[in-house]
Amino acid sequence: MDDKQPRPAETRRITDVGTLKALGHPLRLKLYGRLRAAGTATASQLAAQVDEAVSLVSYHLRKLAEHGLIEEADAQSGDARERWWRAAQDNLSFRHEDFKDTPEGVAAHSAIIRRLIAHRHEQYETYLDQQTAWGERWREAADQSDFLARLNPAELTSLNAEIHALVRTYEERGKAAEAAGDTAGRENVAVHLASFPFRL
């Protein structure tokens, strides 16, 4: 399937420890993230982006594919030797409730969340290091906010659902615009959300 032919919006909920651990490897998380952003890529392209050997990247791509996290994509060039990959779904989710019954599950869930937080922190710090190069319009559009609300669990669930739905609306709007040829000025934009209770 060509990467210009979008997949239907899909979120896969990971509920088995094996798949969670496969995704939780630091290099595999990075490769999966690159594929989500790029649409499609080869092992050679990804290896250059993450500064690793092509053979190592190919190995980890195969591991992601074994767990249905990525899949082969149609060739984007005339080189039949190249194997193209893409994410097998638009989004992934993994909930503590699905892993709380075993120490291994709890540890795997905690580890991948911590790695994701570290990756997001690194991603934002990279933007901060490069923000001058982005120009005034992008700097004014970028945001880092912190909110404090007094909610119960049902209200927090509802808030998260509304925020997710709003972001998805913009995701689909961007895809439709690009499909219609409106690509000028468009960049990948990371939207990170963390909502959790705390006590003083």
Describe the structure.
The chain has helices spanning 17-24, 26-38, 43-50, 54-66, 103-134, 136-141, 153-179; strands at residues 11-13, 41-42, 70-73, 84-87, 91-93. The strands form two sheets. A three-stranded antiparallel β-sheet has the order 2-4-3. The model is unreliable at 1-9 (pLDDT under 50). The protein contains seven helices and five strands, in the order E-H-H-E-H-H-E-E-E-H-H-H. The chain has 200 residues and is mostly helical. The chain folds into two domains: 11-144, Orthogonal Bundle (Arc Repressor Mutant, subunit A), CATH 1.10.10; 145-200. The chain starts with 10 loop residues before the first strand and ends in a 21-residue tail after the last helix. Helix 1 (17-24) runs parallel beside helix 5 and helix 2 packs across helix 4 (54-66). The protein is globular. Keywords: DNA-binding, Transcription, Transcription regulation. GO terms for molecular function: DNA binding; DNA-binding transcription factor activity.
Uncertain runs with pLDDT below 50, 5 residues or more? 1-9
Number of domains: 2
- Percent of residues in beta strands: 5-15%
Q: Give me the secondary-structure category.
A: mainly alpha
Quickly give the CATH architecture of the largest domain. Answer: Orthogonal Bundle
Largest sheet: 3 strands, antiparallel
Shape: globular
What is the fourth-level CATH superfamily of the largest domain?
A: Winged helix-like DNA-binding domain superfamily/Winged helix DNA-binding domain
N-to-C SSE series? EHHEHHEEEHHH
